[in-house]
Amino acid sequence: MTDKTMPALRFRGFYDAWEQRKLGDLTNSFEYGLNASAKKFDGIHKYIRITDIDDSSRKFNSESITSPDIDFSSADNYELKQNDLLFARTGASVGKSYGRL
C-alpha cells in the first residue's frame, strides 16, 4: 500500500506531505459562472468556456477567443482574478478545471 500523503505527482516547489482540506475552508465564496451566449471577440473581454480549456494541458485555448454577449456594467464579479479557480460543476465535463494562479 502506498502512502497517500506523499503522492508521486508533485507541484514545482512543493515537497511536503499532502494535507486533506475541504474546499469551503480554502475560499471566501463560491460563485456560479456566467451563463450567456458567445459573440465575436470584442478585443477586451475574453469569454472562458469549458470547451476553451485544453483537455490534456488544462490551459486556455486562445485560438478562437469569443466575448460574452452581456451588459458589462454589472458583471464585475465575473471577471477572473488572480488565484481564481474555475471548474465544471455539471454535465459531461464535471470536474474539469482551470486556474489563474
What's the order of the H and E elements?
A: EEEE
Radius of gyration over C-alpha positions, nearest whole angstrom: 17 Å
Poorly predicted tracts of residues: none
- The helix content is under 10%
Mean pLDDT: 81
User: What general form does the structure show?
Assistant: elongated
Percentage beta strand: 5-15%
Largest β-sheet summary:
2 strands, antiparallel
Q: What is the structural class?
A: mainly beta
State the distance separating the first and last CA atoms. Answer: 33 Å
Number of strands: 4
Q: What is the count of DSSP helices, taking H or I runs of 4+ residues?
A: 0
In which order are the strands of the major sheet placed?
1-2
Write up what this structure looks like.
The two termini are 33 Å apart. The radius of gyration is 17 Å and the shape is elongated. Strands 1-2 form a two-stranded antiparallel ribbon. A two-stranded antiparallel sheet has the order 3-4. The chain is built from no helices and four strands. With 101 residues, it is mostly beta strands.
